[in-house]
Amino acid sequence: MKFATAILFSASLVASAAAHGWVGTLTVGGKAYKGNKPVEETPKGAPSVVRQIANNLPVKDLTSNEIICGRDAKPAALSATAAAGDKILLDWNSAKPDGNWFHDVGPMLTYLASCGSASCAQFDATKAKWFKIAEQGQDATGKWAQAKLDDGTPASVTLPANLKPGNYLLRHELVALHTAQSPGGAEFYPSCSQITVTGSGTGAPAASELVTFPGAYKPATPGILVDVYNMRRKYQFPGPPVAAFVSGGAPPKATASAEDSTTTTAAATSSKRPTTTRAATTTTTRAATTTTTRAATTTTTRAAITTTTRAATTTSRVAATTSTHAAAPPSVSSAPPKTCKGKRSRRSRSRAVEDVPAAVEEIPAPFAEIPAGARRRHMHRVVPRSL
Ligand SMILES: [Cu+2]
């Protein structure tokens, strides 16, 4: 209850905060294509290659179609022409004074899906079968790829050199992890651009490397449920591994039919990742979907996850009424975390300390130490959940 009160209190203090972002420019083959601001700011966007989103709040519901291309994204009118092997630059913008993206904790992932023989302008993204072509996490100093957008550097993705020509949706995704220590805390910002790839390549993913959205991510997926401020191992990316053909490798042997995307994803994952990963996923998923409280648990791990789940349930119930965000990470840093506006807030720091369940540190997520000073938190504007 104390937790809920704190959230309500802060919601009244922060009536509005800086909005989130969109892909403002996509550059490929020396040509820059403008993306439109969200519909709520630019109701009549100019013809573009970037699918326009309705507003720039984060996507948090992994079962919603908004996880595909962003909040209520609509097909774009145009397609950008790209040669296989081309570098694509995506400049993410926001309403921040300097115009740059502002979250700095979390990875960037890039997927492609074939639109088939028709133009992507006619393609229904709910039918898309996605394969991953890139994933970018932290550099050697612990700086996240996403933090470079904050500096004004566009994201850079290289199309596979041997990619089969055709029409593709390019799904570029930012995952902000500053509150990801609780289920439902991660924020997703997918953006889809329509491209026509030229060349004579034959590279294509195996059926076992394809995933669907929604479906590829679950609230307890490692890399989505993760306390980035207490990582003990290297960050583990969500979703399937990068398709083997991207680096010229042979596709993994298919062990499941392409129709069964859940099995396919699990098979693809296990081929590259240790079996402990799957065990952890199973455990966390079970905990996350259980509504009854387990009285006795056999391991600290499960107890920790159950505690976290319960906390998260409270959070989302509160969030439904106030449209604010989950708790800040447990703060042990001497520097208070920043708000979305980039201002440091003493209040958010003290609240963070009392709100976060202590057991959260026990989550067996992928971990490597990153500087404590890199923490940030923020609040979002109040907008009806039904958008
Ligand atoms: Cu945010």
Automatic annotation (TrEMBL):
Predominant localisation class: secreted
Segments forming domain Auxiliary Activity family 9 catalytic: 20-232
Keyword Disulfide bond: yes
Locations listed in the record: Secreted
Compositional bias per record (Basic residues), positions renumbered to this chain: 340-350
Keyword Metal-binding: yes
GO biological process per UniProt: cellulose catabolic process
Pfam families xref list: AA9
A GO term, aspect molecular function: monooxygenase activity
Biased composition (Low complexity): 254-328
UniProt xrefs under CDD domains: LPMO_AA9
GO cellular component assignments: extracellular region
Signal peptide: 1-19
Known EC number: 1.14.99.56
Family membership noted in the UniProt record: Belongs to the polysaccharide monooxygenase AA9 family.
PANTHER family (UniProt xref): ENDO-BETA-1,4-GLUCANASE D, PUTATIVE (AFU_ORTHOLOGUE AFUA_1G12560)-RELATED
Name of the protein in its database record: lytic cellulose monooxygenase (C4-dehydrogenating)
Organism the protein comes from: Mycena belliarum
